[in-house]
Amino acid sequence: MRPLPGLAALALIGGLLCAGLAGCSSTSDTKDPNQIPDEPAEALYNQGMAALQARNISDATKFFEEVEKQHPYSAIAPQAEIMDAYAYYRGNRYDEAVSAIDHFLDLHPGNKDAAYAYYLKALCYYEQIQDVRRDQKTTQQALAALQEVVDRFPGTAYARDAALKIDLSRDHLAGKEMDIGRWYENRQEWLAAINRFRTVVEKYQTTTHVPEALARLTECYLALGVTDEAQTAAAVLGYNYPGSSWYQASYDLLKEKNLKPEKKSGSWLSDVF
Hints:
By secondary structure, the protein is mainly alpha-helical. Among the domains are: 40-112, Tetratricopeptide repeat domain (Serine Threonine Protein Phosphatase 5, Tetratricopeptide repeat, Alpha Horseshoe); 188-273, no CATH class. The protein contains 13 helices and no strands. It has helices at residues 7-29, 41-53, 57-70, 77-90, 94-107, 114-126, 137-152, 157-186, 190-203, 210-224, 227-240, 245-256, 268-272. Helix 9 (190-203) runs antiparallel to helix 10 (210-224) and helix 10 (210-224) packs parallel to helix 12. The radius of gyration is 33 Å and the shape is elongated. The N and C termini lie far apart (117 Å).
């Protein structure tokens, strides 16, 4: 008869069995419960669309990104990539949307949806435009991205809408210059104010801020005693915006000084307008 194993041997066998069982259990436990199983590309894409329609942005992006992971060479992969960017955009996750767009354009620069991708990127910047009292970096980025849409895809609906948004972005940047100019003027820092108002007149001639900028220039030049420039600014204001309340204010201001709006040759404003 074979001898029964001793207690030490039993303990060793038991330990090995437990280790084996623990190993199996640990392998099962380490499996990511959020991992999406392998599925056909169309099935993953459709689940992403369903999540997007339900406004579940996190799940939508997971499914769209999974299409590329599991089926990078499928016909639907480029569409999933652009929808991934759109889902981030819908969720106001603009940095991630821009990153996804850049990824799409790097892989598919000639894709039929490239125009939309450039437009969507411009929207990501445009919708982050801050109040004029804050930094205008995103406005500058929006302006550059919108201009790229117009330059690359002229005649398209994307270019037409981008052109409208360019006007609004430029108006916003002019508003920033006006805000700073008014601040300087209130502090009687006339030269600094003049530089800001001149920027509006020179760089943003088509914006709604030009009449006020010309009126403010009239005020600042009069404060400095530079009457020729003040008269020219008021004359340009009256010629281009005759019915403006800003012109009436400038005219009254000059009248108090026994001056009239007169466009002087040699003035920088004569070259601008």
